[in-house]
Design a protein that fits this description.
Oligomer: single chain
Number of domains: 1
CATH superfamily: CNF1/YfiH-like putative cysteine hydrolases
Shape: globular
Radius of gyration: 17 Å
CATH topology: CNF1/YfiH-like putative cysteine hydrolases
Strand order of the largest sheet: 2-3-6-5-7-11
Helix content: 25-40%
CATH architecture: 4-Layer Sandwich
Structural class: alpha+beta
């Protein structure tokens, strides 16, 4: 489990960015696969989620997960919340104590957010689609609507694929340039191939929203030595599926 220095300094807050180590799953899911949407044995995933919950807090409630769809949709959980099924969204915000909220990633950017003054937290799954569609903007704007001030918000960009391993095509770049010509700074050409800096793009969105307390955990999920699940690495190895890393946050 990797911790943020910024979030570790906040009282009554638990969090963690988990890699693939320390679980019960086998083979390509070895071993802490937390993705119910994977083809792993459901029993192993449940055991892994239980292990994560215990690491966060023994008295915590069940981990609240989403049905992630690479969108700009988010859900807000207050004392009245009740969902009959897992919501289709890519971020969750709450002010409830002992309710661990989490997102799953396998190269996309996980973002954990806390406003220690208003006691409100968020977990965001920001793949390129979600970031492009405005998931990060929407979460910050909602928190501000709820009374948060940008100077009180801490945001941590978790482990994700680095620019060195995120190869894209020209039509991908053109899509971003059409939205804003200034987006060209997030692209690099190396050995006649085009690469995209997703985490830098995400950070720029936080900065545009006047968030100054930003920490970026510089760990590349694609690099096998870091022991994270990676969809792109799985594809390069011709695996038919991949495990999911979990990033989790909870108010005590």
């Amino acid at each position: 489990m990797i911790k943020s220095k910024k979030l570790s300094n906040i009282k009554n807050l638990k969090h963690g960015f988990f890699n693939s180590k320390g679980g019960t799953s086998k083979n390509i899911y070895k071993s802490l696969n937390c993705g119910p949407g994977s083809k792993d044995k459901p029993g192993n995933v449940r055991k892994n989620l239980e292990l994560v919950k215990k690491k966060i807090n023994h008295s915590a409630g069940d981990i609240f997960l989403l049905n992630q769809i690479h969108s700009s949709k988010f859900v807000y959980i207050n004392e009245k919340y009740h969902f009959k099924s897992k919501p289709k969204a890519d971020a969750v915000i709450t002010n409830q104590k002992n309710l661990p909220i989490a997102v799953l990633t396998a190269d996309c950017v996980p973002i954990l957010i806390c406003d220690q003054q208003k006691k409100i937290i968020a977990a965001i799954h920001a793949g390129w689609k979600g970031a492009y569609k405005g998931i990060v903007d929407k979460v910050i704007k909602f928190m501000i609507k709820k009374g948060s001030k940008p100077q009180n918000i801490s945001a941590v960009i978790g482990p994700s694929i680095s620019i060195d391993n995120y190869e894209v095509q020209n039509d991908f770049k053109n899509k971003f340039l059409k939205k804003d010509r200034r987006n060209k700074i997030f692209f690099r050409i190396k050995r006649k191939k085009l690469y995209f800096d997703l985490s830098k793009y995400v950070k720029s969105i936080l900065l545009k929203n006047k968030i100054k307390k930003i920490e970026k955990i510089k760990i590349d999920t694609f690099d096998v030595k870091n022991k994270f699940f990676s969809a792109r690495r799985a594809l390069s190895l011709k695996h038919d599926d991949y495990g999911r890393n979990i990033s989790i946050i909870m108010l005590n």
